[in-house]
Amino acid sequence: ADIEADTLYGRGAVDMKGAVACFAAAALDYLETNGTPPGTISFLITGDEEGVSINGTRKLLAWAKDRGETLSHCLVGEPTNPDELGDMIKIGRRGSLSGTITITGKQGHSAYPHLANNPVRGMAKVLETLFAEPLDQGTDVFDASTLEVTSVDVGNPAFNVIPAEATARFNIRFNDLHSAGSLRARIDAQVADAIADTGLSGAIAYEPNAAEAFRTEAGDIAALLSETIEAETGRRPKLSTSGGTSDARYIKDYCPVIEFGLVGQTMHQVDENVSLADLAALTAIYRRFIERYFDRFGG
Questions:
Q1: For residue 299, what pLDDT is reported?
Q2: Cα 132 versus chain centre, distance
Q3: Which residues of the chain have pLDDT under 50?
Q4: Reduced to 3 states, what is the DSSP secondary structure of residue 297?
Q5: What does the DSSP 8-state code read for residue 106?
Q6: Helix, strand, or coil here: 209?
Q7: 89: buried, middle or exposed (CB in 10 Å: 19+, 13-18, 0-12)?
Q8: pLDDT (0 to 100) of residue 219
Q9: What DSSP element (H or E) covers 74?
Q10: Burial of 297 from C-beta contacts in 10 A (0-12 / 13-18 / 19+)
């Protein structure tokens, strides 16, 4: 990381190595001031949450459970604030489903299209069908579900060749009106209907790390964190389920989980950065929260 003036630059500065540093600093300061806590402070830090999520949090939580470890609450340090520190606590997340649609036709010369079957025409129908109707209008707790096509490709450098295959990659962020299974069934049916009677074939490969939508039952812990944030920043945070996914989708099966971290305006960007003042403020919030947590809940 590089510090320039009052800003720290570096990959993960916001998402979310900065919050990990704040957690550690807060816990160390608490221990130095208070000594051994009446309960346990544990850090769960893994490395594959952005990928297939096979060997990280899921396995570590299962390992802890097998050892008889029980978790009372969890606070995740994802960058939850849209504009200023203290804006928002996440009490749940929309689900995420990704996949690749492949439409297969018959390759041929573009001057003789009757001897070929262009999969691009079929893909155009598929995309029109997928975008025709919104998935829903949202709920009182969740934003509307969205489907975004992130790539369309035929891998064809030639102008005069009708390709044999066309692919499209998509991602759906969905609320609790759906499940990954119900959305798979919907997409399967839409693709089949779109290319019916065209002579084309379609296949969909879904990514294995689908995340279900959830809202955590964390009223007491969210209220305590809200009070703590307001005491440090003067802002009362909004309770929200917006944004992407996180490891909270696994943790919620073991204990109530909430999320609060830095301001997320530069995450996943070149020159990701965070102000030193926000790092200090987040550390103070975590520090006060630890103290209040043990006062409120004991060991």
A1: 66
A2: 25
A3: none
A4: helix
A5: B
A6: coil
A7: buried
A8: 85
A9: strand 74-76
A10: middle
